[in-house]
């Protein structure tokens, strides 16, 4: 049996998303999610879409609610579910496992076959991606144990941003100190920004090299990037995934002196400030909820705290659209993606409201409608808008699978959407 399948693991701080793909036609054989890892009511949801052997029926959805104490336990459970469908990690059809790795520093400019040196480098970057890289490492080492000898490929969030020019990547601090400690802007969600900017070009009927796109990746973590002819020229996240937009639990941009103030005047430790800015800020810090659905529901009921949190969130997005418009000079499209970007018409409407002077205008009916394309990608701008606005669902897993399969087979990755 030729090995043409790729398992993709996207390990987040408290969840693992996984997908098994058949790369000859890019179909999904199984998808799953383990949420609330480390809590006593973790939940595993597994859907088998095509049988590997006659055990489970197609489209069967299974759920397990139990305690998965850590990412290793979660991955072992996911592997059991795959095995129950005859799609186990030891099946001969599996060509490789592709891992999303959030921080790859400056050096990983392409997907990389994992060896001990690569693992050591990902470990060295833990201090600058404390919510993500430890989970990514556990994902890789557990997969190595469960499928010894199988190629493990790391696909980095930072890679797409390594094309940023020096004037966008450097902070204006002492050069010697910055270089010694590798303090610079790396950017994240790169796999998503790459995929969505290409898919947006395709939606406009153009080659990626011809279009300039502002991509708004609005998930729990959120970032925006300026993509010029297919290359990233600026992005809102920096040394860590804390800079930039207001996020579910992270503050995004603030005056760095806020940190000194909280340490010196409020008597907080550096670790306490770190926890405040990463976990108790953003939407949750402002109004107690980080889920945009719940925030919109509260706004409908007249809740003022939820309204203010929403307004701050939108104001920051607008500032970045303006900034990246200036960086790019000419913009062909603004694309919304990830959980909030794909599913929240009020966010898209508010983010582009009042930007008619920049050539941006939303068609209210299109903004509410479902997309005609199979993947849901669609234009939401009004006819007279000079700059397109689009909803483009991201597919980090497909992109990681393509990169992984290309690396192990020695072929170029597919470039469509
Ligand atoms: N139907 C919806 N309407 C508004 N927001 C939504 C909807 N579905 C999901 N979201 C938002 O998307 C977020 C998750 O986005 P996602 O891209 O999956 O994040 P992550 O990959 O960081 O876990 C949720 O926290 C919620 O705020
Ligand atoms: C880098 C980052 O913020 O990732 P996520 O949105 O998955 O938390
Ligand atoms: Mg995400």
TrEMBL record:
Pfam families: Acetate_kinase. It catalyses: acetate + ATP = acetyl phosphate + ADP. The record marks 189, 250 as: Transition state stabilizer. It comes from the Bacteria. The active site is at residue 157. Mg(2+) binds at residues 10, 396. Its EC number is 2.7.2.1. It is found in: Cytoplasm. InterPro entries: Ac/propionate_kinase (IPR004372), Aliphatic_acid_kin_short-chain (IPR000890), Aliphatic_acid_kinase_CS (IPR023865), ATPase_NBD (IPR043129). ATP binds at residues 17, 217-221, 291-293, 339-343. Keywords: ATP-binding, Cytoplasm, Kinase, Magnesium, Metal-binding, Nucleotide-binding, Transferase. Mg(2+). Can also accept Mn(2+). Substrate binds at residue 100. Its cofactor is Mg(2+); Mn(2+). Pathway: Metabolic intermediate biosynthesis; acetyl-CoA biosynthesis; acetyl-CoA from acetate: step 1/2. GO terms for molecular function: acetate kinase activity. PROSITE patterns: ACETATE_KINASE_1, ACETATE_KINASE_2. Belongs to the acetokinase family. Catalyzes the formation of acetyl phosphate from acetate and ATP. Can also catalyze the reverse reaction. This is Acetate kinase. It comes from Streptomyces ovatisporus.
């Amino acid at each position: 049996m030729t090995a043409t399948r790729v398992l993709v693991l996207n390990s987040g701080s408290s969840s693992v998303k996984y997908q098994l793909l058949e790369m000859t036609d890019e179909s999904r054989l199984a998808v799953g999610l383990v949420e609330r890892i480390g809590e006593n009511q973790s939940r595993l949801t597994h859907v088998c879409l095509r049988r590997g052997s006659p055990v489970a029926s197609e489209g069967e959805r299974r759920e397990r609610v139990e305690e998965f104490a850590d990412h290793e336990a979660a991955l072992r459970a996911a592997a059991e579910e795959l095995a129950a469908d005859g799609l186990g990690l030891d099946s001969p059809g599996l060509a490789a496992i592709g891992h999303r790795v959030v921080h790859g520093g400056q050096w990983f400019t392409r997907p990389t076959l994992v060896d001990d040196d690569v693992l050591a480098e990902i470990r060295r970057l833990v201090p600058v991606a404390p919510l993500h890289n430890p989970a990514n490492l556990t994902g890789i080492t557990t997969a190595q144990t469960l499928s010894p000898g199988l190629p493990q490929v790391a696909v980095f969030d930072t890679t797409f941003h390594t094309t940023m020019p020096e004037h966008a990547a450097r902070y204006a601090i002492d050069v010697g100190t910055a270089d010694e400690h590798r303090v610079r802007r790396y950017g994240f969600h790169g796999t998503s920004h790459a995929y969505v900017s290409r898919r947006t070009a395709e939606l406009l009927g153009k080659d990626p090299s011809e279009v300039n796109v502002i991509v708004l990746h609005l998930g729990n973590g959120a970032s925006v990037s300026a993509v010029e002819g297919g290359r990233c020229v600026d992005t809102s996240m920096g040394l860590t995934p804390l800079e930039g937009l207001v996020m579910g639990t992270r503050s995004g941009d603030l005056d760095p002196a806020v940190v000194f103030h909280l340490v010196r005047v409020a008597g907080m430790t550096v670790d306490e400030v770190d926890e405040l800015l990463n976990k108790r800020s953003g939407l949750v810090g402002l109004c107690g909820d980080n889920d945009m659905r719940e925030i919109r529901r509260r706004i409908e009921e007249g809740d003022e705290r939820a309204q203010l949190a929403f307004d701050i969130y939108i104001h920051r997005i607008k500032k970045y659209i303006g900034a990246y418009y200036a960086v790019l000079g000419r913009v062909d499209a603004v694309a919304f993606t990830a959980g909030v970007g794909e599913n929240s018409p009020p966010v898209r409407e508010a983010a582009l409201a009042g930007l008619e002077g920049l050539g941006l205008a939303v068609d209210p009916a299109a903004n509410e409608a479902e997309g005609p394309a199979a993947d849901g990608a669609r234009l939401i701008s009004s006819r007279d808008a000079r700059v397109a606005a689009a909803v483009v669902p991201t597919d980090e897993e497909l992109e990681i699978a393509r990169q992984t399969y290309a690396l192990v087979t020695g072929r170029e990755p597919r470039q469509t959407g």
